[in-house]
Specification:
This protein is α+β, with helices and mostly antiparallel strands and 283 residues long. The chain folds into three domains: 3-95, Helix Hairpins, CATH 1.10.287; 120-182, SH3 type barrels (Roll); 186-269, Alpha-Beta Plaits, CATH 3.30.70.100. Helix content is 53%, strand content 20%. The protein has helices spanning 2-18, 22-56, 65-95, 99-113, 116-131, 200-217, 251-269; strands at 140-143, 146-153, 157-161, 167-171, 178-180, 186-194, 221-233, 238-246. Strand 3 and strand 4 (167-171) form a beta hairpin. Helix 2 runs antiparallel to helix 3 and helix 6 crosses helix 7 (251-269). The longest helix is centred in the N-terminal third of the chain and has 35 residues, at 22-56. 17% of the residues are buried.
């Protein structure tokens, strides 16, 4: 009883102090409290959800880490939107006393009025992306002309981080074509120009040696490096090709290393990549 009497005295004091501004100030205060409370709930829920999925990574029988990260970000996003929609409805119905308007318009009408058509489209697309396992957090993908690593997959948008640090924020409903560079093993193809004047026996010996050295340096091969052979006879050089297969996203480092070692070996042995002189016939 004492608590209620104290609250009543405070309310009466505020009414006397604020006069006609009491109701608007009181409503603004409630709106601020609801917003702050909903933000805190959303942040706390995000932390709890992520901790829960982090624990799942340590279980013996579990999904892949990428799928767990994807589900974590998606569920956290769903929770955030649910909390924010609840806050908006609470402000409209309890604070602004728009219950009759909400009842007349209906939930569907209010959702459309709030621009939820695109939200529903993006949400459904996001669930289909997850259901069909098109990509997951950590995958390197290309959407239209944008290439990057999936940093976050939310209820409405997918966030990509490009190689140069740019962040692409793409609504899920606008993702029509996706190229996933992370799935399946990748082909390593290194074309080496060799001058016609070079000894092909020596070139093959060097190429085989480089393949063995690179094979020993990397533990990412599903098929070790090998010399495929001559693939083209150009105007100034012969094209020798080295091939291999690696785990996803490992092919570039292997290609760079092969080129580096071939360059060093050619310099040491005096072999040329291109003929320095070109002989042409006159008609």
């Amino acid at each position: 009883m004492n608590e209620f009497s104290i609250l009543t005295k405070i309310d009466n004091y505020l009414k006397d102090f604020l006069g006609g501004f009491h109701d608007p100030v009181f409503k603004v205060g409630k709106i601020i409290l609801i917003i702050v409370f909903s933000i805190l709930i959303a942040k706390a829920g995000k932390i709890i959800i992520r901790k829960f999925f982090e624990k799942q990574k340590n279980l013996k029988f579990k999904m892949s880490d990428k799928k767990l990260d994807t589900m974590s970000t998606l569920i956290a996003s769903v929770f955030k939107y649910v909390v924010y929609i609840w806050a908006i409805l609470m402000i409209l119905s309890d604070v602004l006393n728009l219950k009759s308007v909400l009842a007349a318009a209906g939930v569907g009408g209010v959702a459309i009025g709030l621009g939820a058509q695109s939200l529903i489209k993006d949400t459904i697309s996001g669930f289909f992306i997850l259901l069909e396992d098109q990509f997951a957090v950590g995958d390197l993908i290309t959407v239209d002309t944008m290439t990057g690593t999936v940093e976050n997959m939310e209820l409405r948008v997918t966030r990509l981080k490009s190689f140069d640090g740019d962040t692409y924020i793409i609504p899920n409903g606008e993702i029509k074509r996706v190229t996933n560079h992370t799935r399946d093993n990748k082909m390593v193809i290194v074309d080496i120009p060799v001058a016609y004047s070079s000894s092909m026996e020596k070139v093959y010996e060097i190429a085989h040696g480089v393949c063995e050295e690179v094979k020993a340096e990397f533990a990412v091969f599903t098929e070790p490096p090998s010399v495929m052979g001559i693939t083209e006879l150009g105007k100034q050089s012969i094209n020798l090709r080295i091939i291999a297969r690696t785990y996803p996203n490992e092919q570039w480092a292997v290609e760079r290393r092969i080129r580096w070692k071939i360059k060093e070996a050619f310099e040491k042995t005096g072999l040329e990549f291109y003929d320095r002189t070109v002989v042409t016939k006159e008609d």
